[in-house]
User: Which sequence fits this backbone?
């Protein structure tokens, strides 16, 4: 009864608003709230405002309010809170890995249900399959890729040269990486390391991403496509963690304990670490601030090279009117057009997830000037989605804690992963 | 013997105090240092790195800070004013007008102290959405207009005020409101200042609730605006983050330095540490 009453009130209110708007304008305006996070430097909010202004100029019937909402976590909290209160944003950029959480909370619409015309289908087919994969589950496509990234290896060519290595010949296997790491590591007279070989970020929030790449390089995967199973006790997965731990424990080429994502670029730029695994989004920063010759390389393999994909997708929310959903879909299509994605890639360093975008003038000019940007593109076919399951926040934290325990030496890799698997099994049981 | 050891102990205590104070203030010192140096200098601690104001100009250009300051100021004043009125009246009632069930009611107020506001995020948001107060400064302040901590604190202070003063005022013909304003509030001034400082700094720093409930530049406080510089994905640009942080804490810092003596004395008397 209460709900009916409230809906009636809402209906009356909508009617009133529409009436007023209708009287003042020839057409009814569809209003959209669009939440997005900012994760990288630069005037990102202004860039987004510019895209949205362009969209509104082309679609006078739609009024979009672009709302900057913190980082990914903040944006997810804000969007879920708003959705639970019955006032969801029409569209939001949220982590690709949040797909199961959003489905379980029943707040998003699958995107493929809006795809009707041939033009829509052509647009959908333009995305790289690797980037769509993480959004496909339960027979639907739940989101479309927007600000996507992938991790690559930045290496200090000068350090390679100093150590007598060929700076153009970057490490292609795990063993190569250890050998190169040993060659470039330097110690001062008292035995303290002044330059490390390699740094792989193991802090909470980054370690699951890096570890996904290590596992994939070893031919293993961390979870299934349905997000209901994890394979942390797989010997190949354990071996991957053992390799990471041994980088510092056995080989002494990696800083001890946990290497921080946030300070990794600064360590690299200061010459304290010669190789870092970091996001493609850092290319502009490193290019601007490096005082030495540096290179960008794809990840090594054991034997097959692999990387992981990260970043955010567009989700369309439930509990909005059909006009709003259609308008939101239109906005998603506009913002993932080849031209916009190409411009977005140049402005931010994200990887454009469409082949078409890489063929635009904007991006061909950019890659001609900065061929390092192409490394990411070449690596994408060999990339796997980031760790993502149901109850993702909890399972990711368990995995993060297990990796930290192994990296700091509190547990052996085998024990840490086995404990994590048991804990995750308890959580995921209800989804199987 | 004691005359020798006491100065020694005194020196050790003083040294310890200085050490703790240094550890405590070092993040702020680093922030000062990093904010006035170029980004490359921040991580290497090069003493001869050139000084620069460029970080500040970049930060000011990247976000509408004056507007954010105004919003924070409005929000904090609104909350402080309402909390002072509501908590004073509530505490006064608890102390001077015992009624049936007032004990239980006070217990309920105390229980509220134990509930983290974050748990109520969705419920509060729902209420605000129904009231149509999303994305307004009033809506942002609404859940905080009464403070269980304030009621508790004022009640304790009012209880410690001698009954004789209240009775004397009554004999002089003062009514209940006059007694409150002329006797209780002036005597509780240190508590008011201390509580004011705590609540202002809490709401100046509050982040999650303002972020969730606001959408536009016109309502957002500095903390939410500041977040745009925490570019997690690319690694942290300390120079700009610290410059932005200094800007947003500057008003509080200046106020604290100016009124330092009064604040410290109030805290000593009010017993909050």
Assistant:
């Amino acid at each position: 009864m209460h709900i009916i009453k409230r809906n009636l009130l809402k209906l009356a209110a909508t009617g009133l608003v529409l009436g007023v708007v209708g009287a003042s304008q020839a057409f009814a305006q569809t209003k959209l709230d669009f939440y997005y996070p900012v994760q990288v430097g630069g005037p990102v909010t202004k860039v987004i405002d510019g895209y949205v202004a362009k969209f509104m100029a082309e679609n006078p019937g739609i009024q979009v309010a672009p709302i900057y909402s913190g980082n990914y976590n903040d944006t997810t909290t804000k969007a879920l809170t708003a959705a639970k209160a019955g006032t969801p944003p029409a569209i939001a950029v949220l982590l690709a890995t949040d797909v199961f959480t959003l489905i379980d909370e029943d707040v998003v619409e699958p995107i493929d249900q809006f795809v009707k015309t041939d033009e829509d289908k052509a647009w959908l087919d333009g995305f790289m399959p690797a980037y769509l994969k993480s959004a496909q589950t339960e027979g639907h496509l739940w989101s479309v890729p927007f600000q996507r990234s992938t991790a690559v290896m930045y290496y200090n060519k000068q350090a390679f040269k100093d150590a007598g290595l060929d700076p153009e010949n970057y490490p292609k296997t795990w063993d190569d990486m250890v050998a190169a790491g040993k060659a470039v590591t330097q110690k001062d007279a008292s035995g303290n390391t002044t330059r490390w070989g390699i740094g792989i970020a193991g802090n909470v929030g980054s370690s699951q991403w890096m570890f996904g790449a290590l596992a994939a390089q070893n031919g293993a995967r961390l979870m299934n496509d349905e997000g209901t199973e994890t394979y942390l006790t797989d010997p190949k997965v354990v071996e991957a963690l053992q390799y990471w731990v041994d980088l510092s424990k056995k080989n002494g080429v990696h800083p001890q304990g946990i290497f921080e994502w946030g300070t990794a670029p600064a360590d690299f730029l200061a010459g304290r670490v010669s190789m870092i695994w970091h996001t493609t989004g850092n290319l502009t920063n490193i290019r601007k601030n490096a005082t030495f010759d540096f290179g960008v390389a794809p990840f090594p393999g054991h034997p097959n090279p692999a990387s992981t994909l990260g970043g955010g997708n567009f989700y369309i929310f439930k509990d909005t009117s059909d006009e709003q959903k259609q308008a939101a879909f239109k906005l998603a299509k506009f913002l993932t057009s080849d031209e916009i994605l190409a411009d977005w890639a140049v402005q931010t360093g994200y990887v454009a997830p469409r082949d078409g975008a890489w063929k635009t003038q904007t991006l061909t000019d950019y890659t001609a000037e900065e061929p390092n940007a192409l490394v990411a593109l070449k690596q994408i076919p060999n990339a796997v989605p980031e760790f993502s399951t149901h109850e993702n926040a909890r399972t990711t934290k368990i995995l993060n804690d297990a990796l930290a325990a192994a990296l700091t030496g509190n547990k052996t890799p085998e024990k840490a992963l086995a404990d994590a698997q048991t804990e995750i099994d308890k959580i995921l049981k209800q989804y199987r | 013997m004691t005359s020798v050891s006491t100065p020694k102990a005194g020196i050790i205590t003083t040294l310890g105090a200085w050490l703790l104070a240094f550890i405590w203030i070092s993040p702020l010192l680093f922030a000062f240092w990093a904010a006035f140096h170029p980004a490359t200098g921040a991580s290497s601690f090069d003493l001869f790195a050139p000084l620069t104001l460029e970080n500040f100009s970049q930060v000011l250009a990247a976000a509408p800070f004056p507007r954010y300051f105004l919003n924070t100021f409005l929000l904090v004043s609104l909350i402080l004013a309402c909390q002072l009125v509501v908590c004073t009246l509530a505490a006064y009632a608890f102390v001077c007008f015992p009624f049936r069930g007032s004990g239980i009611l006070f217990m309920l107020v105390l229980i509220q102290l134990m509930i983290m506001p974050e748990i109520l995020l969705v419920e509060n948001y729902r209420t605000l959405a129904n009231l149509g107060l999303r994305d307004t400064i009033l809506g942002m302040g609404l859940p905080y207009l009464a403070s269980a901590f304030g009621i508790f604190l004022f009640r304790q202070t009012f209880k410690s005020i001698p009954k004789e003063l209240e009775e004397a005022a009554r004999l002089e013909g003062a009514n209940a409101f006059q007694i409150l304003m002329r006797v209780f509030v002036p005597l509780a001034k240190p508590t008011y200042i201390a509580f004011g400082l705590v609540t202002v700094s809490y709401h100046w720093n509050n982040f999650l609730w303002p972020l969730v409930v606001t959408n536009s530049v016109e309502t957002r406080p500095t903390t939410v605006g500041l977040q745009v510089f925490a570019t997690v994905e690319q690694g942290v640009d300390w120079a700009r983050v610290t410059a932005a942080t200094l800007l947003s804490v500057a008003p509080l810092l200046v106020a604290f330095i100016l009124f330092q003596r009064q604040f410290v004395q109030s805290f000593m008397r009010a017993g909050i540490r």
